[in-house]
Amino acid sequence: MVTKNISQEDFFLKVYEFVKKIPKGQVRSYGDVARAIAHPHHARHVGYALAALPKGSEVPWHRVINANNQISPRKIKEKESIQKKILENEGIIFDCKGKVIQNAAKL
Q: Which domains occur in the chain, in start order?
């Protein structure tokens, strides 16, 4: 259970519905997603939802980054590289420290 008002399954579905609406070439933070689905204090649960996606899902999980405007560190570094490569292919630009410096949503 995420909160008394919503089950984990329903929360995850809301996350997936919102993330599917993030346009190609744009990113949002976990907190942005949590606020957008009316659960502003559950950014971490947004991450749990995205981590639970089955391989091959059509949800563009790669468009969600952390509040520092960076890709969140992962235990398996290859996953960070994959996310960065996908975002770069969508037109996202990173600085030398790995921060997003070009995001159409923020322009």
A: 8-106 (1.10.10.10)
How far is residue 88's CA from residue 63's CA, in Å, rounded to a whole number? 11
In 57-71, which positions are buried (b, 16+ CB within 10 angstroms) versus exposed (e)?
eebbbbbbbeeebbb
Query: CA-CA distance, 99 to 53, in Å (whole number)?
Result: 25
Angle CA 8–14–16, to nearest 5: 100
> End-to-end alpha-carbon separation of the chain, Å?
36
Contact 10, 89 (CB under 8 A): no
Verdict on whether the full-model pTM lies above 0.85: yes
Burial of 31 (0-12, 13-18, 19+ CB in 10 A): middle
> What DSSP character marks residue 97?
T
Euclidean distance between CA atoms 96 and 12, whole angstroms: 33
Q: Give the model's confidence band at 45: pLDDT under 50 very low, under 70 low, under 90 confident, else very high.
A: very high
Three-state secondary-structure class, residue 99:
strand
